[in-house]
Amino acid sequence: MPKHPVLVEHDVEAKMTDGTVLRATVYRPDRDGETFPVLLTRTPYGRDLAVNSAYFNPLTVAAAGYVVVMQDCRGRFGSEGFFDPAVHEAADGADTVTWAAGLPASDGRVGMWGRSYFAETQWRAAATAPEPLKALALGVSAGGTANDGALYRGGAHEFGSRFTWGHTAITPNALVREFADAPDQREAALRDWLALDQDVVAGDVFDTLPIRALGSRLNTFMNTHIMGSAGQGPGSPVTELWDSATAHPVDAATLHIGGWFDIFAPATLAQYRMQLAHRRTRSLPPPRLVIGPWTHSDFSGDFPDLSLGIAASSGAMGGYGDLTAMHIAWYDAVLKDDDTALRRIPPVLLYFLGENRWRGFEELPTPAEHRTWYLADGGRLLDDPGRDSCATYDYDPLDPVPTVGGATMMHGFRPGPADQRRVDARDDVLTFTSEPLTAPLTLFGEVRATFHASSSAPDTDFVVRLCRVSRDGVSIGLNDGIVRASWRDSYATGTYRPGHRPRPLEPGQVYEFAVSLWNTACTLAPGERLRIQVTSSCHPRWDRNLNTGTPAYDSAESAVAHQSIHMGEDHPSRVVIGTL
Fold it and tell me: Exposure string (b/e) for 213-234, b if CB count within 10 Å is 16 or more?
């Protein structure tokens, strides 16, 4: 492939329909008279943020024969206007696609790329169907899961990740813009933000009760967009706006990139399936899918308690190349009709933990079968329900179980697979462990728990976690989930169903609950065991249930809840996992 010299142009202006000017950095082949496809991304995080290059290197891509455009969203960094998340991205995206298609070095075809919020800007632009837009490369994309992990999970608020996003990714530039004409106020606001940041790192912010008391320390953006959702619940208007980004499939080629430990992992799979079904009725190339052992912002495959090696990283992917090269190969196929490089990469590429290798498929496979493990007396995990029994613990909201790993995105906390032994050892955590396996077992697909429980409280939470226990006893968390008891009707199948309002518990009455622990791909070796944790908190990932019926957003009063997990023939508490 010939490599082109690259010309970088800064502060390239695009005027939106309403007159607002958005600015971009443009990387283009320095070839007078030649034209190339345009690859556009739109971001609220600063178009020249260095971390972008580890995912998609604009210089490398431009040298491969593309015009790469990195634009600041409305109201962010170099662009004019006011930033209101999601609200302007459809119109601004459509205007920018049309503008990009008309750039002097453009051949009229446009693809989009980027991860997280960058992915939302792709979906919203594509929903308007601008004619030049032919392809979307969507990384760790959020749309469609506002009530199932993006904003809320099982009725609990994703307080840790939402606060972290607003505080670290948005607030600094928001303060600079809010006080652009008042330098003394700006300096004071930034000092206050730094002081708040120290309390975030120390964990004091997340311990605040009631949560709304934080409002006096927060800026306009945080109070409007973060604290607002903290005081609401599943099905609220903010969830409708969030999910509208991916409400319908789009007529474009799509590449979906995600991680098993990403906070939006279910959305990546759902969006791939949606585009796959849509493609069957359109003349579109089949969507492609890559799922690595990655988190929302870390694509290394390297964790404090589990290092998977360089082959697991986005820089190698088991010999298939880095993510930048994969983007180029895919765009060559869908925008240049050259699939030479793409032919060597499977349409679906999934990383399997335990095997520590990538597996390729033509389409996302479905589990060959489903296997059920039952919670049983004595902390056992059995193939049958066992005798009727009950296991108990007390949950104190003022002494919550700490967040250790998981599909999180929180300032000061490392996500991903993590050693759970200090969690296992707590008195307020029940564990149920299988016998050592006698043959390899590949877990694949959704992990779903259905269990029977009672509580002394009118409302409480239940957290379920799947762990892989090594031969030497190290318990590594793979998947987890939560249900807020008052929201049990909305999550009766483990995922959100509209049309139900929260209902209190009758203390002492046994109820059935369901929790989706999301998806996994993990092979256990002979001698390894499965473990299920059951507890009632994961702090500060999810806002604490105070066991009083009043949300932590509004109250500082709490009570200790006496929890009982019921098991056996009459109450078959169980976990069902797909296998390959």
Answer: ebeeebbebbbebbbebbebbb
Q: Return the H-helix or E-strand segment holding 323.
A: helix 323-335
Which letter does DSSP use for residue 419 in this model?
Answer: B
Residue 470 exposure: Cα atoms within 13 Å on the Cβ side: 14
Give the pLDDT confidence score for residue 50 in this predicted structure.
67
Per residue in 26-85, pLDDT (tens digit) is: 999 999 999 999 999 999 999 987 666 778 999 999 999 999 999 999 999 999 999 999
Distance (Å, whole) CA 248 – CA 281: 14
**What would the 3-class secondary structure string for 105-147 be?**
CEEEEEEEEEECHHHHHHHHHHHCCCCCEEEEEEECCCCCCCC
In the chain the first and final C-alpha atoms are separated, in Å, by 39
Identify the pLDDT of residue 1: 55
Among 413, 412, 396, which residue's Cα sits nearest to residue 404? Answer: 413
- Please tell me the pTM assigned to this model: 0.97
Q: How many CA atoms lie within 13 A of 532 on its CB side?
A: 31
* Buried b / exposed e along 402-411 (16+ C-beta atoms within 10 A): ebbbbbbbbb
Give the list of residues 6+ apart from residue 503 with CB closer than 8 angstroms, or none.
486, 488, 489
Label the pairing between strands 306-307 and 302-303: antiparallel
pLDDT score of 483: 98
Low-confidence stretches of the chain (pLDDT < 50) are none
Buried b or exposed e, range 534-559, using 16+ CB within 10 angstroms:
bbbbbbbbbbbbbbbbbbbbeeeebb
C-alpha neighbours within 13 Å on the C-beta side of residue 153: 30
Q: What is the pLDDT of residue 412?
A: 86
Dihedral, CA atoms, 132, 138, 141, 145, nearest 10 degrees? 70
Bridge partners for 402 per DSSP: 539
- Is 520 within 8 Å of 262 (Cβ atoms)? no
Place of tokens 């080629």: 253
Condensed to tens digits (0 to 9), the pLDDT of residues 206-234 reads: 999 999 999 999 999 999 999 989 999 99
CA 304 to chain centre: 20
- What is the per-residue pLDDT for 51? 60
Of the candidates 112, 109, 107, the one whose C-alpha atom is nearest the C-alpha of residue 123 is 112
